[in-house]
Design a protein that fits this description.
Order of helices and strands: EEHEHHEHEHEHEEEHHHHHHHEEH
Structural class: alpha/beta
Largest sheet: 7 strands, mixed
CATH architecture of the largest domain: Up-down Bundle
CATH superfamily of the largest domain: Dehydroquinate synthase-like - alpha domain
Number of strands: 11
Strand order of the largest sheet: 1-2-9-6-5-3-4
Bound molecules: nicotinamide-adenine-dinucleotide, zinc ion
């Protein structure tokens, strides 16, 4: 049964195709004038199967780093495009993970006020989350994802073979990221990740179902709130706290793993506020803990964490906006006073919880 579907965006409808042979796909898709922008690791590891269609083309090979995904970092890419005579009726073709995607989306949306682009996501995070939704964000100075807009590709091709070379920590980061959709969705998706998620490291073939489920959850929300004004904001669950962890560890913790810690913090605070009981928090934590062996969290400077939380771009004024939960599928947006009681909870989370195990039944 085909897993293909399309996303009805206000900008344009775009298709998501699961493909078996990227060679055939590139053969039919690539047009004259297309500029291919490819992640360096993917270029090296998959050249054998890409070379048939890409050899002889002047590629732009990117080092995927948060530093390169920045206002300054993208300058050389734009320079190269202009130097090669890239025109408004040419297209960009991105092959890589979320960083390559963000760089290409940002450039595609702004160069000549917009050019078409197509995307071959190669990381689990990009295949199971970021490839749809149209968001582009690049960093500015120390501010993560500060500059951006919405500009979806024309087509997305998901080739699961890319995942065969993806390091375990990136597979886990992808699972961590997809898990926030499953928890926001509700019990059924929770059970899917509980039962299938742990198998992915041993058997990557089970991942297709998780990717499809994750994308379908995201698609349903993106189609009603593409521009993040309302319900889509619930997908920030785990993200405000996760971004703060990424920021203070200087991105040593991959995004999806940071988000998995972020969800646990949100759940912990939800217990403290009497919104969920500790049993539910522990059920969710049992899933999240599976991701933590790969990248254990070192000691966290809570002052720096709170300062990073305040800097989150979603905040307005002094308030810190976060997503908390009243249960699976019952996330909601609220404001946290990090100068008040919440500060103590954050302290105790890092002191007792990350290193010390679960909350006991008394909470
Ligand atoms: N635009 C969005 O909607 C959106 C959503 C979520 C996350 N993001 C952004 O995406 C980024 C994280 O994405 P990511 O985890 O894909 O990061 P990434 O692009 O850096 O990829 C992770 C690592 O895996 C390597 N890699 C990619 N594909 C590979 C493959 N097939 N085989 C071997 N190595 C491979 C990359 O070279 C990199 O070292 C963050 O910057 C985050 O902010 C964007
Ligand atoms: Zn994310």
């Amino acid at each position: 049964m085909s897993r293909d579907f399309s996303v009805k965006s206000k900008i344009h409808e775009y298709a998501v195709n699961f493909v078996g042979d990227i060679g055939v796909c590139l053969e039919t898709e690539l047009q004259e004038g297309d500029q291919v922008i490819i992640d360096r690791n993917v270029h090296e590891l998959h050249w054998k199967r890409l070379s048939q269609n890409l050899a002889g083309r002047d590629l732009i090979v990117l080092d995927a780093s948060e530093e390169k995904k920045s206002y300054r970092g993208i300058e050389p890419v734009i320079d190269k495009l202009i130097g090669r005579g890239f025109r408004k009726d040419h297209r960009l073709v991105a092959i890589g993970g979320g960083i390559t995607q963000d760089i290409v989306t940002f450039i595609a949306s702004s160069i000549y006020r917009g050019v078409d682009w197509i995307f071959f996501p190669t990381s689990l995070l990009a295949q199971g989350d970021s490839c749809i939704g149209g968001k582009a964000s690049i960093n500015f100075g120390t501010y993560k994802n500060l500059l951006g807009n919405f500009f979806p590709p024309k087509k997305i091709f998901i080739d699961l073979k890319f995942l065969e070379t993806l390091p375990n920590r990136e597979i886990i980061s992808g699972l961590g990221e997809m898990t926030h959709f499953f928890f926001v969705s509700g019990e059924e998706a929770f059970e899917l990740v509980r039962d299938q998620g742990c198998k992915v490291l041993q058997d990557r073939s089970v991942v297709a179902e998780l990717i499809e489920c994750s994308l379908r959850i995201k698609q349903a929300t993106v189609e009603v709130d593409e521009f993040d004004q309302n319900v889509r904001q619930l997908f920030n669950y785990g993200h405000s706290f996760g971004h703060a962890i990424e920021s203070i560890t200087k991105f040593a913790v991959p995004h999806g793993i940071a988000v998995s810690y972020g969800m646990d913090i949100a759940n912990y605070i939800s217990v403290k506020m009497g919104l969920i009981d500790v049993e539910l928090r522990n059920r969710l934590r049992a899933i999240l803990e599976r991701y933590w062996n790969e990248v254990p969290l070192g000691p966290i400077d809570v002052d720096a964490f709170v300062a990073a939380l305040r800097k989150d771009k979603k905040n307005v004024g002094k308030e810190v906006k976060v997503i908390l939960t009243r249960g699976l599928g019952k996330m909601f947006k609220t404001t946290l006073d990090v100068d008040g009681e919440a500060r103590g909870w954050i302290d105790s989370y890092f002191q007792d919880e990350v290193y010390g195990g679960k909350l006991d039944a008394a909470g």
